[in-house]
Write a structure and sequence with these properties.
Number of domains: 3
Distance between the termini: 61 Å
CATH superfamily of the largest domain: DNA/RNA-binding protein Kin17, conserved domain
Pfam family, one: GPKOW_C
Strand content: 15-25%
Structural class: alpha+beta
CATH topology of the largest domain: Arc Repressor Mutant, subunit A
CATH architecture of the largest domain: Orthogonal Bundle
Radius of gyration: 37 Å
Organism: Thalassiosira pseudonana
Order of helices and strands: HEEHHHEHHEEHEEHEHEHEEEEEEEEEE
CATH class of the largest domain: Mainly Alpha
GO biological process, one term: DNA damage response
Family: Belongs to the KIN17 family.
Largest sheet: 5 strands, antiparallel
Strand order of the largest sheet: 13-12-11-10-14
Number of strands: 19
GO cellular component, one term: nucleus
């Protein structure tokens, strides 16, 4: 039968049929030919070209099968490495990505009878970390690229060096504080805390401490004379990253040696001290009440491990995961989570994808039936397990019974989620 001319409807139909991926069982790996149906496949098996290829296969069956197996292994590992890196992935999902290529090496032409055998082979050879779960086999690629390993090692060394430098800086600050304390003892003065606006100083500014006894440019002979009277000693202490703010407590330190003027000032100082103490007591009283109220306030983060959530982002993967349920495997910095997408239905096998997503793109999942276990995510009982007792769909609230002490609590839908 002559070939259809280019541009005719018949030619367009033939090219459209040849473009898509057809049934794998009607594909001949030796001839690299895809047949459309069973009849065409039978005709191909009786053709002279196919018989010649099979004769070649009989002469070197082991070598040809090893070649096909090697090509399939390379294609699978490249897909896993390039698309997913070192993420934990469902082995079947990676296989579906491999066979999406029309000219891929078919598994029935390799030495592995099934995908399970191939995954176990990868684990024994040390190419991947394999794990069998209720949802199937999972694989994690083991990175062996020398350049990447070198970068990771350099990053590790840099982190260790930063930690060491931070430790040395803390030791230097401690040494400065000890020297300041010794200078106070030598000066024989008393520390008088005077309220000021030092808390409003610019970041990186220096703190001036005035102590009795020494001046910034004084010599030892002058020091001896100064100790008898009232003198000042100026110490400049570095404000290293603001870590010394806690030690200063937002005040300037004026140190004076007791003198004859002290008894005159004592009643005034006593009244000022009493007033300051009363102010501090009132502040402590208010802060204790506010802390009790704050303990029941909701936090701005709510993620928790092993809960079921729903993805509500329409922009993620062009809406592919919109309204899909997922299980939180790991919480990252309180506001992000590593989730594993669940299957959309029992028959479909489209789950297993691992995503890193912000909590703003997720919402809680409410059980449909009473008695199911949930996890409280916010408020006073955050982290506790409970059972669903009653749903109020008009107010979007629910009554929960705590597992620990059978207490009944009423929470909003957004404050709890179904357990995985």
């Amino acid at each position: 039968m002559p070939k259809a001319e280019k541009g005719t409807p018949k030619d367009i139909a033939n090219r459209m049929k040849a473009k898509g991926l057809q049934k794998l069982k009607f594909y001949c790996q030796m001839c690299s030919k895809q047949c459309r149906d069973e009849n065409g496949f039978k005709c191909h098996m009786t053709s002279d070209s196919h018989l010649r290829q099979m004769k070649i296969f009989r002469d070197n069956a082991g070598g040809i099968m090893d070649s096909f197996s090697s090509e399939f292994e390379v294609a699978y590992m490249e897909t896993l490495r390039r698309r997913h890196g070192t993420q934990r992935m469902n082995a079947n999902n990676v296989y579906q990505e491999v066979i999406a290529d029309k000219h891929h090496i078919h598994m029935n032409s390799t030495k592995w009878a099934s995908l399970t055998d191939f995954v176990q082979y990868l684990g024994k050879k040390g190419l991947c970390v394999v794990e069998e779960t209720e949802r199937g086999w999972y694989v994690t690629y083991i990175e062996r690229d020398p350049s990447l390993l070198a970068r990771q090692e350099a990053l590790k060394k840099k982190t260790e060096a930063d930690q060491k430098e931070e430790k040395h800086a803390a030791e230097r600050r401690e040494m400065l504080r000890m020297e300041a304390a010794k200078a106070l003892d030598r000066a024989g003065g008393v520390v008088e805390r005077v309220a000021s606006e030092i808390g409003n100083r610019e970041r990186g500014a220096q703190i001036e401490m005035k102590l009795g006894g020494l001046g910034s440019g004084a010599n030892p002979s002058v020091v001896g004379k100064k100790r008898k009277g009232t003198g000042t000693l100026t110490l400049l202490v570095e404000d290293d990253d603001g870590s010394d703010e806690e030690e200063v407590d937002d005040a300037t330190l004026n140190v004076r040696k007791p003198s004859a003027v002290a008894p005159v000032k004592k009643p005034l100082q006593k009244r000022e001290t009493d007033h300051i103490n009363e102010t501090k007591d009132s502040k402590k009283h208010k802060s204790s009440h506010s802390s009790d109220k704050d303990s029941e306030k909701k936090k701005d983060y709510w993620l928790y491990r092993d809960i079921i959530v729903r993805i509500i982002s329409k922009t993620l993967a062009k809406g592919e995961y919109y309204k899909r349920k997922a299980i939180v495997d790991k919480v990252i910095d309180k506001y992000e989570a590593e989730v594993e997408v669940m299957e959309s239905s029992r028959k479909s096998k489209d789950g297993g994808d691992v995503l890193r997503i912000d909590q703003d793109d997720l919402e809680t999942v409410i059980p449909k039936e009473t008695g199911e276990k949930v996890r409280i995510l916010n408020g006073k009982y955050r982290g506790k397990k409970a059972r669903l007792e009653k749903l109020d769909k008009t107010k979007y609230r629910a009554e929960l019974r705590l597992v620990d002490d059978d207490r009944i609590v009423e929470l909003d839908y957004e404050d709890f989620s179904k357990l995985a």
